[in-house]
Amino acid sequence: xxxxxxxxxxxxxxxxxxxxxxxxxxxxxxxxxxxxxxxxxxxxxxxxxxxxxxxxxxxxxxxxxxxxxxxxxxxxxxxxxxxxxxxxxxxxxxxxxxxxxxxxxxxxxxxxxxxxxxxxxx
Length: 122
What we know:
By secondary structure, this protein is α+β, with helices and mostly antiparallel strands. The chain has helices at residues 11-37, 98-109; strands at residues 50-54, 57-62, 67-70, 73-75, 77-79, 85-87.
């Protein structure tokens, strides 16, 4: 009923244990973001339509799709690679949000109205 004497620690056994612990720690660190992401997902509700009257013009912006309408007519909006927006009314200057872009388009249009969108070719 006596325990067998423990084997002396060798350099090989110490290195093997240290290497195994390092590999296990690396695997755990690599898998941690994946396991954390498996939690319950948040459901995102769409942002409400932003509507305002600016200089007597009715502006409506759908932030989710970056669709802009001025007095009910669509304004062609393009998103740049840096996250800013530009429009067909003034395509030389970019703006941080679609609402800023719509206000600048109203300033540029003055009393003119947007033309109705022409059908795309193709």
